[in-house]
Amino acid sequence: MAGRSRLLEDQVANAAFVEMNMTTTEGFNILSTRGAPKFPIRYDHPNCGPADRACVESKGNADLSEKDINRMAEYGRWLGNPTRSEFKVSLSEVIEGEKIFRQLQCDTCHVIKKIAISDPDDTMLSKAFRDRLKTRVKGPVFPFLSYLGTDLLMHDMGYLSQVADASGAIRDADGVVITGFENYVQKIRTPALKGLGYNRFVTDSYKNTKNTGDPACDFLLHDGRACDAIEAAFLHDGPAIKKLGVIEGLSKLLQQELQQLRAFLYSL
Asked: Buried-most residue among 24, 45, 155, 246 (CB within 10 A)?
């Protein structure tokens, strides 16, 4: 675990713990023998709320070795940055779908916006992209499309976040957790929508259909319960979703509007 920067390796281990409840006992033990700080780098215990007894008494969903961490980090270093198809972006259904996405206020958490750049050289873009930005877009403000589709924050997702059988007694009328019951909820980080259109090909999920031409299942949301982006949208829950009226808005969409929304999501 020495000899070069471990930043990405540490990020992999931390993400595995926080997002997927995976421990890294081997790395924890190595750091322990060296007297190095162990938090938040490697973990020998599962990531659980104290109310989730089954989780606390478990060993987590998996235990990653340092070899696993290294392999995942190397894979991450070789990943390309998925770019939206200029053809798809110009399609009328995609354009209308983005309007619906914003109208439903989905972009409150799944943030998609233009970042104003006054000086392309004052960015972390590669030189090739900086030069392209200078020639293709006229100043004084250079819009850079940021369609990551996430605020990178942790949110209470209602029943999707509950880690104990609370029988509905832990929330008020607005769906907000009552003081004292916070440990019954494990918040979920807003997943990025960038690259959603490539998901079924990267995971080979496009093959999991019985008949040729049938839609594949994308296995979306944290536990894979949603087969499609629209189904995932309808399964959203939590105080913010209730306050924004997202589900009510989705329910009022016409079939054509749902198809437009889907076209936009899978253009990302």
From this structure: 24
Query: Do residues 178 and 242 share a domain?
Result: yes
Residues 183 and 250 in one domain: yes
- Annotate 121-132 with DSSP letters as a single string: GGSSS-HHHHHH
| pTM of the model as a whole | 0.70
Q: Where are the beta strands (DSSP E) in the chain?
A: 22-23, 62-63, 113-117, 142-146, 154-155, 188-189
Cα 12 to the chain's mean position, in Å?
15
234 within some domain = yes
In a domain, 218, yes or no: yes
- Mind spelling out the 3-state secondary structure of 36-52? CCCCCCCCCCCCCCCCC
How far apart are alpha carbons 57 and 162 in whole angstroms? 18
Q: Is 178 left (phi over 0), alpha (psi -120 to 50) or beta?
A: beta
Return the SS3 of 35: coil
Residue 218 lies in domain: 154-265
Is the pLDDT at 95 greater than 90, yes or no? yes
What is the Cα–Cα distance from 76 to 72, expressed in whole angstroms?
6
Of 81, 79, 82, nearest to 266 (Cα)? Answer: 82
Give the tens place of pLDDT for each residue, 120-159: 777 666 677 778 777 766 666 655 555 788 888 889 998 8
Measured from the Cβ of residue 64, the count of other Cβ atoms closer than 10 Å reads 23
Contacts of 78 (CB under 8 A, 6+ apart): none
Measured distance CA(168)–CA(159) in Å, rounded: 9
